[in-house]
Structures are given as C-alpha cells and as structure tokens.
Amino acid sequence: MKRKWWKIAVLLLLVAVLLSGGMRPVCADEPPPQVALRYVAQTYGVNQADLQVVGQGVTRYPLTGQTIWRGEIYDRRTHQPYAVCVDAQGRVVDLAQVQAQERAAHTARYGKLEPALHELLQTKADSDIMRVLVWLAPVDHAAIQAELTRQFPDAGFVQGHPT
Length: 163
Description:
It contains 5 helices and 6 strands, in the order ααββββαααββ. It has 163 residues and is α+β, with helices and mostly antiparallel strands. It has 2 domains: 99 residues, Nuclear Transport Factor 2, Chain: A (Roll), CATH 3.10.450; 31 residues, no CATH class. The strands form 2 sheets. A 4-stranded antiparallel sheet has the order 1-2-3-4. The relative contact order is 0.09.
C-alpha cells in the first residue's frame, strides 16, 4: 500500500512540473544567447551544437520597464533562421506581445498626443494659450461614397458630392 501512494505522489509531482511551464526554458542566471540556443534546440528538436547566434541586440521599453534581448539564431545544418526574444528574467517572450504592451502603456499615458506636447501641457495652466500643429488623418472619399450609396441607394453623387 505504501508503494502505491509513493508512485502516485511521484506521478502527481511530475505532472505538476510539466504543467507549470516546464516547456519554456527559464534561467535568469544564464546569458540570453544561451537561453535562446537552448530554447530553439528544445522547441524545434534541433541539435544545439548546430545553432549559432548571428545577430543580437537589446531594446528597452521605457513605459513598461521591460528590457528585451533579441537574437537571430541560425541552424548551420538546415540553414533555418530563428528569432528569439528573452526578457531580463531569462524568459523567452513574444516580441509582438511586448510591443503591444508598450503601445497600450503609451496610449494610456499620452492618449493621441505626442509625448513632448503631453509633458509641456503638464506645466501649463488651463487658461494658457499655445500654438500647436494638428495632423489630420486623410479622408477616404471613395469609402465614404460607397457607404452612403449602400445606406441610401437612391442618392446620387456628382464629383463625390451628394446631390
């Protein structure tokens, strides 16, 4: 009976380890290039000895406080390139998700304003007058006409203007 409980405990521990994210290599003590090489080897089932870091760089995302190492990994045997991003904690991350988080933080902080204008406005009183340049988005007249024609099929247009 004791052996049966021991086997169940080991099995549950193994399942817990596998479900806890053991699929993504994480080691903050390991340099990002090593994390990336190990990740590519494990994820794509290639020999780590065939892999080489051929390009790398670090990008800081100031609003979210993230620092991301991005490496280009090349498989010398298959000639397959891989791109891998590793955060400061040694976790492999999705670059598109990191960039989306930074864009969301930018929008939350500045809205549609340029950061320099936002910062300047913080120092001004509500009654202060300032000259600013406003960028207008281009108008897609054909799309507007198509939508109006769809909504009002009996309407006529002359040179893009309703008649």
